Amino acid sequence: MKRLALATALAALMTSPALAGKVFVSNERGNTITVVDSETWEVITEFPAGNRPRGITASPDGKHLYVCASDDNLVRVFDTETYEELHTLPSGPDPELFVLHPSGNPLYIANEDDNLVTVTDVDTHTILAEVPVGVEPEGMGISPDGKYVVNTSETTNMAHFIDTTSYEIVQNTLVDQRPRFAQYTADGEHLFVSAEIGGTVSVINPDGGAIEHKISFEVPGIAPELLQPVGVRVTSDGKKIFVALGPSNRVALVNGETFEVEKYLLVGQRVWQLAFDAEEKFLYTTNGNSNDISIIDVEAETVVKSVQVGQQPWGVVVVSD
Amino acid sequence: MFRKFLLAVASLVSLAQTATAQEVNAAVLRVDYPALLPVSRLDLRPEDLGFAGAQLATEDNQTTGRFMGQTYVTQAVAATPETALAEFERLQGEGVRFFAVQARAEDLLAMSQAAAEGTLILNTLAPDTALRSDGCRGNILHVVPSRRMFADGLAQFLIWKKWPRWALIHGSHPEDIALADAYRAAATKFGGRIVAEKEFTDTGGARRTDSGHVQVQRQLPTFTQDLADHDVIIAADETDVFATYLPFHTWQPSPVTGSAGLRPVSWHPALEAWGGTQFQHRFEELTGRRMRSEDYNAWLALRVIGEAVTRTQSADPATVRSYALSENFELAAFKGQALTFRNWNGQMRQPILLADGRITLSVSPQEGFLHQRSLLDTLGLDQPESACTAFDQ
To answer: Which residues from B are below 8 Å from A153, CB to CB?
Structure first.
């Protein structure tokens, strides 16, 4: 059955060469990036990425890979073809997670130890601003029009909306315990904020910051304490929301219209971050405790493969060729 | 330079807000009891023990307060057993209504007695079972785990390991005997068997002299020679008299647990899971030392207050207390799940860390120990076992 699904998937891949690309996975404990071929799902290579690589993203043209080297207190920039380090960017201390402006510049970085969001120009390699936020900033989301960047602070339990021109916090929304991730829908109508310890995903109306809905999770036979939402990704049509549920080893698929959970997909252990490929055909998950990634077929809503990567995979990004 | 400027602007903004803000006045009251030097100099008490954790919590609360229009002021006061009550009353007279208290049961109860209507005390030190049962007080919440919670945390691990035969060695002080009682109760609860029991009598004398180790190396093997066959030794030595010497000095090659070896603790500076790393970083940056359980407990106490104030938008102690005891309260505190309160005796539910000195070896509750309400209620006094009535609505 699984084999058949995989064969179908591979056949689908062969007919759409645009899918060819690379999956980059940051390994927090291994201090490396694992590169996986997005067509064959074979590991291409693993290269060193500094100390404690966590947040990972790529430039819109796919040429540059940005990695938060948390314990080096900077962002490392790699060439996605040669894997060579091109330069570093100042990030402020302990960068954990970041988000790139839709235009590709600047980079908004959460400094977990220092209660700051640092804004870094990726061309001039300079810091444009530092915005004081709540305690232990982590999640970073940006509105599709680039006007607001949202930071979640894990101990303050807030989503802070920062104006990207004035660098002022214009609005705060109190959410449940330990918010880890912020994700806008492509139309900018909703913002999803996961609360790892609270066990919920808040659906926020960015206009005014009110919580319109709270998604909660329930799996028979699994202790509710283990259902810890972290990474959230939404298809660009807004129909499917995927939520990584940490130590429950599951990814929830949530209906983007009703906000009801439709199914739970079993993946590797302690699943945290998620990334689509460019076509949103497949979703990749990082499983920190089983040192692998799981690959989910978005259309079929099934897990089709897992690939061993480095030690304690944290973040993932897919770059098309 | 740039950053300093921005921070300065931020603090100006927060100052501007304080004019109309709610002010949350708390105190950490630490009672310093006369004590001998610890067996290991690694355990020397830092001057700011507990206070540092409270400072971090106050900074955390204040960062949130900046967005909510609240200001947190926490005084740190060290007292002797003789001055403790007077200090408590003095602070109360100054308008302090939230107290994180690091004191033994008798002093804690004296403060509870002297507390004004609406004053809320958070116990950060006393592990006594009675305080969670017939000796409970409606104005005391316990953020420190009880002896029963610590004992149950270790017991679950030993049962999970299928090491059910325990040799219990306890000290001769009342605290040690109470701790031994907690291990006996844990044995009954989880199916452990205490196959041997022995008291190590504190006869005083030099413990850290140059020749001390010679005596230890000769005496401890014979002291443990007559223990019946066992899987592990559990040392109940809250007063730090002998347990630290036990590992490797036993007659048989026995693993030591309890007050030495594998210890159940509320915090450990090596914990890295669940965001622990950045929490440790923040504390170490603030203090230049590692975080101890006393610091964590004080942090927890003040974060309970901060969380309740944030959610209720009230600095009234009665509102804070009732929110803390409600279904809605939960606190993320770097232990992998939300911490809540037992609304029948005011005890905070929390996982117990099992540390061997270098790493956090395991965390209880262990897999397979189930409870109809919360898995955390497998640790410590459950509702039917507690004779506390002060929390009845």
So the answer is: 63
